[in-house]
């Protein structure tokens, strides 16, 4: 194909996010050769099982549409959408931690330099779509305090906790939030949050997706979005999550990457916080209640900076013991 950007655009159009075979091929033979292998009879590398490779070829070849790249360029121009690929200035190097599951490209609307902010300045605030009043209140307060301390809020652009975090961050410090979406940026999902997304972009924020224009969200794409949120953040905070919430997937991704996970405790009687309590119980997350606690996750205090409160003092007198009594 001869143009890495075009090859990555093609592969992102026909591959699903985190397609392992596509990732392995890109890693071993490059994006240009990977794109060519979809329709060629050339041998695949030994790292690819022959049967799986044949299925990969059939699956991706069936999605090739003549003129698709021209359509993508037209939609990108029409909606003001840009594209980033590895090696470009604004490409977030933290995505390398995802290995062969790293995105092929990122589509964006807004200010891509937000992705160049230092990793410790980025925090993801996530949780359930079916959030309670308690959850949305805490998410808003936490996001507001974090951006007030110079952080940038990353979340998934969904209803509930995500929406509360994005709105509060953008209201406190306009543009200091990044929704990571699971579909094309030409039709952001959910549609009801279109106004919120536009306000974020207008105020200097950023919308990001690894899916090209025209792509619709799916369960797989929603789940895989979690790895991007986790990788782009120095720490992930789960505000409110039920036992089956997708936010637990993001927490698991962050934990697997070695990134700290903060967990806001909820009422013991609330099923909406059952996932939070399981994260704490299983040792995946650390209990946090405010922005100061989150800052300590990102930059832990020196445990020897302050003397222990109950340091041993050899001059301290022992309390007297009553006659005939022993300790």
UniProtKB/TrEMBL annotation:
Report the Pfam families cross-referenced here.
Answer: DNA_processg_A
Q: Which GO terms describe its biological process?
A: DNA-mediated transformation
Q: Out of the domains of life, which is the source?
A: Bacteria
Where in this chain does the record put each Smf/DprA SLOG domain?
Answer: 83-296
List, alphabetically, the Gene3D superfamilies matched: 3.40.50.450
Q: Which family does it belong to?
A: Belongs to the DprA/Smf family.
Can you say what this protein is called? DNA-processing protein DprA
Give the source species: Agromyces seonyuensis
């Amino acid at each position: 194909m001869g143009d890495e950007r075009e090859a990555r655009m093609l592969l992102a159009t026909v591959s699903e996010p985190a397609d392992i075979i596509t990732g392995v091929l890109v890693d071993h033979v490059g994006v240009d050769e990977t794109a060519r292998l979809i329709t060629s009879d050339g041998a695949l590398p030994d790292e690819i099982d022959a049967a799986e490779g044949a299925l990969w070829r059939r699956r991706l070849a069936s999605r090739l549409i003549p003129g698709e790249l021209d359509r993508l360029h037209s939609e990108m121009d029409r909606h003001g959408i840009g594209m980033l690929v590895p090696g470009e200035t604004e490409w977030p190097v933290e995505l390398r931690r995802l290995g062969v599951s790293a995105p092929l490209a990122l589509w964006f609307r807004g200010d891509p330099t937000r992705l160049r902010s230092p990793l410790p300045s980025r925090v993801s605030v996530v949780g359930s779509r079916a959030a309670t009043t308690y959850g949305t209140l805490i998410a808003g307060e936490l996001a507001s305090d974090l951006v007030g301390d110079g952080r940038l809020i990353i979340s998934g652009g969904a209803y509930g906790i995500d929406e509360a975090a994005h709105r509060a961050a953008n209201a406190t410090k306009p543009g200091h939030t990044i929704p990571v979406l699971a579909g094309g940026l030409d039709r952001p999902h959910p549609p009801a949050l279109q106004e919120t997304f536009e306000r974020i972009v207008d105020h200097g924020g950023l919308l990001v997706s690894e899916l090209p224009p025209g792509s619709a969200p799916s369960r797989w794409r929603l789940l895989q979005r979690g790895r991007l949120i986790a990788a782009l953040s120095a720490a992930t905070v789960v505000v409110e999550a039920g036992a089956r919430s997708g936010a637990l997937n993001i927490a698991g991704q962050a934990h697997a990457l070695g990134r700290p996970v903060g967990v806001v405790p909820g009422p013991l009687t609330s099923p909406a916080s059952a996932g939070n309590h399981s994260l704490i119980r299983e040792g995946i997350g650390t209990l946090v209640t405010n922005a100061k606690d989150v800052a300590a996750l990102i930059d832990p205090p020196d445990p020897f900076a302050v003397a222990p409160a109950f340091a041993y003092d050899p001059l301290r007198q022992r309390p007297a013991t009553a006659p005939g009594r022993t300790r």
